[in-house]
Design goal:
two-stranded antiparallel ribbon; mainly alpha; 448 residues; 15 helices
Amino acid sequence: MADPLTWHRLQFAFTIVYHYLFPQLTMGLALLIVVFKGLSLRAGPNAEGWASLSRFWIRLFGLNFAVGVVTGIPMEFQFGTNWARFTHLTGGVVGQTLALEGLLAFMLESSFLAMLVFGEKKLGPRKHFAAAVALFIGSWMSGLFIVITNSFMQHPVGFTRDAEGVFALASFWEFLLNPWALAQYAHNQMASLVTASFVVTAVGAFWLLRGTHVEAARLNIKAGTTAGLIACIAVGFPTGDAQAKLVAKHQPAALAAMEGHFVSGPRAEIHLIGQPNVAARRLDNPIGVPAVLSFLAFGRFNAEVVGLNDIPEDQWPTSIELLYYSFHVMVGLGTIFIGLMGLAALLRWRGWLEHRRSRPLLWALMLAFPFPYIANTAGWMTAELGRQPWLVYGLLRTADGASPTVHAGDTLFTLIGFTGLYFVLGLTFLFLVGREVIHGPATEGAHA
């Protein structure tokens, strides 16, 4: 059996990857619901259509939010069970934002979600819109506090440390305004909007292909493709570009591993494909574009990029191959998303999307919705694998943060339990969402 640290990491990886399938949709969908509600307040022929569509997506938001809460609770406990040493050493810093997320953002989000689901008639249109705005603020605040916590682990600032290695907060504002957090948050939120836009577009394409809820389908595709194209571009530039430059500056080993870059030098290539051969310290079968990595990392084509050969091996990411492929899956899918959303937005603008010849594109839009989830997962894997072997980059190693008294058998047993429970939970969620999609938006009436 593997050592306890491996099982601790695997269990947390499984629970956080599964959990993040849900917040990435709710954060993006919260913004789109505000847009739908705002459009429904404007006088016009589509006002009731936007209102009906907003009710539909509020119901799906509620389902998604509920499962996100259930899958997020075990992660909180793992800080005290699997990662007690990390919690003891860093709790004085990361506990600040984790507490704010639970006590402020989560309570704001859950309270106004109840108003949105059950209070439209009692609140009236404008107050119901205000509740949607409050839900959006709570949802995005929750993401902000989590990203700030993670960013401290990636690029620690605003802290002091005593002789026993215990961290304490020295400057709350320096910690809160961590430049890594600002870039990562912008990148993460645009990625969540990509997921929501693809889901909204997929549902609209599904309705059009079936010939049901046609007007609602058109509005879905109009909103989804417009927001999706903007978000897909913003994920790459400026947010992804800013994130990449921070990685190049503060985590050179992560950048080198992400690109399979072993030999230092100027005019470094960006590799489109290739297979990292760590034993031989090279990238096999590479296809690259010269000087592009230097430009993306430092803004100059002749800038020198440090290779893994000039970095001590004990500072290399612990899984270079997985990091390399995660990064390339994220970037490759992101590039495809821009093309797909760009084509869909163009055809919709020209009025050709509902023509018979465009049905293959509707099928592509309907079937594409899982891929932003894959890209987001690969993106977070890139960030977290790049940080290894550190829990707090350069200061606290992962091996020193695990709980010494929780054994491998205990962790494996609970991992098996989580896997079974989440499988049943996932099937239930898919059934409920599928039922809502088939039923479609209500044509009239609102929740009491």
